């Protein structure tokens, strides 16, 4: 008896589903769990569904740590997403694993992508194909504590604009106790935070070098420019003593506690720093070199179309991707998440550029580079070890840099020789 | 019930009824045992053998695995990081196990004689064992910070001693982490030692005292030998614990896991990073095979050394 009911129930369910699919197509959107990102995407999905009543979008989220395992497992099970979010640095792995498909140039014309989006979108291009489009991008800027600046006799409305001024400001603001221990740093630093990006795409280029060859297969920072950049950065803790690696455990903790006059960090930190009540802080562009040349690092999560999408699902997925890459979606994302629009027209509005917080980040985008990582964690570790050899073992920056270059080249070789 | 007594021929009997009681018992026993066996074969043994196979491939989750022979092992044995990690793992084991056992025995030995607030003191020692390793590691991580927030360095500064780098030092980081691991496991070992001490009959001690043996001789001739089963258990248990150390290290060095410069990285953390941040599953499997072998050899060796003669 019970069995018959179960079967009847199942049959009804199945026919309902069939009925549903005849009227509407359902696609799945995948991203990792991060409160504001989920909220923003829910809002975008609601807008999209209102405009396209025949399409429903199922929003699937999972913890960041499970990202690649989850996507891979789903693909093996034949249940991949129709639209999926991925970090630009994972593109090679996703393409090699056939997890995503190239964007149809008839729906997403290349000329439009190249003229509309910030140039860093090129990191989503392999051969002649684009594999995804970002909604929002992130860049770095210099945060500074206005209270500490005032106490040190510096003008809080006139933050350092060059590397020399940065050093001078750090020297003016660092504080020590009787035993010589630093009690408040001039600039909070650590490769474990954002400094490895500042070093790789900022300082090395500002000192006249280039971190990697154009095809991304060779490490090119082990030259005079690289040594000069590395030495300049290391001297902040090595000889000038304006900072201490590991002070307060991590730079953002030191800055939040009001024990760091400056800190280099990204747009994603705005949420945390907005909660600071004990002092006022400001944001300015990353300092220029003596010739006024600036360089920044930008990164982003892009949205791509899953390899399993085809037919009407593919059509729906393309429509959805077009919507979440539209200026309207970018404005919502900026509002809810605080990340910068990926289209120049949506980003570089007068209002945004004049914004005291978004402005410096947006200006940074114009001269930003993206590192094409093959193994983000391992390459970050190379920078961490570079710093540890100098700061803990007292190794000469040039020798440490040579070791780092060899180690990173080995990572690149291992990846490209597969 | 149906065809019980054996009096007269019974025509229709099922297969089940032809078994003797003894056979039925065996069948039942295996029927129940089948559940854990299937579980262990499916969840433990099969993946273990799968790991052996994976260690000969270059599987990276995304692309299909390709057989590459011993290349992973060659890479591993030529990798200075692997040898550093190997050495660290044995440092945790060789220093951690004896120190934790001696300390916990001494505490248990004297705590056993304390009557005043005995339960309270015992609870204090046991408390760290109940605390989440991650929470504890974070508290210690802040203890070890430089001034102005590190308690230990704050104390050193107050008494005029130079501040210590602790976790940001090649030499101090591993011992600094090991101290917290020993401290965390101490409560459990003390409880087990005390149970062992209580199990030794008081009459032995009385006889020894009547014969005029000193405390030291009693300890050497009676307490330690009779405590051997407890010691064997704790040595094996704590060795495996130190060989598999992960939580403390990872949580105390999250910014630079196993750092600085791999000076605190144990094998398990290296496996975790190879597998889940570099997605080099084949290489990670090869490292796992090495860890498996070490655990097996160390356990067998200890059982052999501490066996009953």
Automatic annotation (TrEMBL), chain A:
Cleavable signal peptide: 1-24
Classification via Pfam families: SBP_bac_8 (PF13416)
Domain of life of the organism encoding this protein: Bacteria
Any single GO BP term: maltodextrin transmembrane transport
Annotated Gene Ontology cellular component terms: ATP-binding cassette (ABC) transporter complex, substrate-binding subunit-containing
CDD domains with a match to the protein in the record: PBP2_XBP1_like
Keywords (A to Z) from UniProt: Periplasm, Signal, Transport
Gene Ontology molecular-function annotations: maltose binding
InterPro entries membership: SBP
UniProt record similarity statement: Belongs to the bacterial solute-binding protein 1 family.
Official protein name in the record: Sugar ABC transporter substrate-binding protein
TrEMBL record, chain B:
Record domain ABC transmembrane type-1: where: 86-302
Highest taxon listed in the record's lineage: Bacteria
Subcellular location: Cell membrane
Gene Ontology terms: cellular component: plasma membrane
Membrane-spanning ranges: 26-46, 90-111, 123-143, 173-197, 226-246, 284-306
Subcellular location, principal: membrane
Family matches, as PROSITE patterns: ABC_TM1 (PS50928)
UniProt KW keywords: Cell membrane, Membrane, Transmembrane, Transmembrane helix, Transport
Membrane association type: Multi-pass membrane protein
One annotated GO biological process: transmembrane transport
Matching InterPro entries: ABC_transporter_permease, MetI-like, MetI-like_sf
One Pfam match: BPD_transp_1
Family, as annotated: Belongs to the binding-protein-dependent transport system permease family.
Name of protein: Sugar ABC transporter permease
Organism per entry: Pelagibacterium lentulum
């Amino acid at each position: 008896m019970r069995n018959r009911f179960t079967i009847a129930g199942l049959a009804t369910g199945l026919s309902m589903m069939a009925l549903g699919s005849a009227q509407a197509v359902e696609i799945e959107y995948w991203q990792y769990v991060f409160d504001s990102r989920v909220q923003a995407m829910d809002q975008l999905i609601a807008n999209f569904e209102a405009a396209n009543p025949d399409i429903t979008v199922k929003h699937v989220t999972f913890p960041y740590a499970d990202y690649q395992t989850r996507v891979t497992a789903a693909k093996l099970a034949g249940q991949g997403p129709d639209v999926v979010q991925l970090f630009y640095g994972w593109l090679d792995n996703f393409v090699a694993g056939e997890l995503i498909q190239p964007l149809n140039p008839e729906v997403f014309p290349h000329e439009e992508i190249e003229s509309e989006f910030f140039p860093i979108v090129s990191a989503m291009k392999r051969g002649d194909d684009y594999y995804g489009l970002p909604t929002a991008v992130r860049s770095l800027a210099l945060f500074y504590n206005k209270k500490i600046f005032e106490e040190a006799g510096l003008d809080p409305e006139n933050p350092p604009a060059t590397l020399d001024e940065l050093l001078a400001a750090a020297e003016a603001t660092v504080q020590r106790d009787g035993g010589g221990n630093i009690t408040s740093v001039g600039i909070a630093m650590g490769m474990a935070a954002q400094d490895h990006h500042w070093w790789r795409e900022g300082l090395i280029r500002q000192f006249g070098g280039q971190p990697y060859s154009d095809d991304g297969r060779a490490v090119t920072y082990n030259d005079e420019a690289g040594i000069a950049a590395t030495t300049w950065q290391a001297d902040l803790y090595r000889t000038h003593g304006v900072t201490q690696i590991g002070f307060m455990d991590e730079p953002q903790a030191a800055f939040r506690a009001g024990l760091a006059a400056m800190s280099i960090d990204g747009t994603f930190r705005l949420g945390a720093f907005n909660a600071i009540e004990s002092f006022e802080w400001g944001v300015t562009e990353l300092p220029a070199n003596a010739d006024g040349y600036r360089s920044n690092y930008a990164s982003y999560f892009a949205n791509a179309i899953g390899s399993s999408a085809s037919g009407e699902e593919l059509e729906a997925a393309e429509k959805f991707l077009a919507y979440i890459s539209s200026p309207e979606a970018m404005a919502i994302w900026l509002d809810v998440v605080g990340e910068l629009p990926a289209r120049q027209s949506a980003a570089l509005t007068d209002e945004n550029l004049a914004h005291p917080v978004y402005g410096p980040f947006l200006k940074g985008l114009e001269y930003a580079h993206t590192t094409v990582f093959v193994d983000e964690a391992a390459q970050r570790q190379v920078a961490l070890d570079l710093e540890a050899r100098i700061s803990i073992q007292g190794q000469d920056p040039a020798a440490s840099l040579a070791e780092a270059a060899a180690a990173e080249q080995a990572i690149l070789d291992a990846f490209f020789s597969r | 019930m149906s065809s019980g007594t054996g009096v007269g021929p019974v025509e229709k009997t099922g297969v089940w009824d032809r078994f003797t009681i003894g056979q039925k018992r065996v069948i039942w026993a295996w029927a129940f045992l089948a559940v854990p066996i299937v579980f262990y074969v499916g969840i433990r043994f099969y993946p273990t053998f799968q790991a052996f196979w994976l260690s000969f491939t270059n599987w990276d989750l995304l692309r299909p695995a390709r057989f590459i022979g011993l290349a992973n092992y060659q890479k591993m044995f030529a990798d200075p990081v692997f040898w550093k990690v190997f050495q660290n793992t044995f440092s945790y084991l060789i220093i951690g196990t004896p120190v934790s056992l001696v300390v916990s025995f001494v505490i248990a030995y004297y705590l056993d004689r304390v009557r005043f607030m005995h339960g309270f003191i015992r609870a204090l020692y046991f408390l760290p064992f109940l605390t989440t390793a991650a929470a504890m590691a974070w508290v210690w991580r802040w203890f070890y910070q430089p001034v102005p927030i590190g308690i230990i360095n704050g104390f050193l500064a107050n008494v005029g001693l130079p501040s210590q780098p602790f976790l940001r030092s090649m030499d101090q980081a591993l011992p600094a982490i090991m101290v917290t691991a020993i401290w965390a496991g101490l409560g459990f070992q003390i409880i087990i030692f005390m149970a062992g001490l209580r199990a030794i009959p008081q009459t032995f001690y009385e006889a020894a005292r009547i014969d005029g043996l000193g405390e030291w001789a009693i300890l050497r001739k009676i307490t330690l030998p009779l405590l051997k089963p407890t010691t064997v258990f704790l040595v094996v248990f704590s060795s495996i614990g130190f060989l598999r150390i992960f939580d403390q290290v990872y949580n105390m060095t999250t910014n630079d896991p196993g750092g600085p410069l791999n000076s605190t990285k144990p094998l398990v953390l290296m496996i975790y990073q190879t597998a889940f941040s570099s997605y080099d599953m084949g290489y990670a499997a090869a490292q796992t095979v090495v860890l498996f072998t070490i655990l097996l050899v160390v356990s067998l060796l200890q059982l052999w050394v501490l066996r009953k003669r």
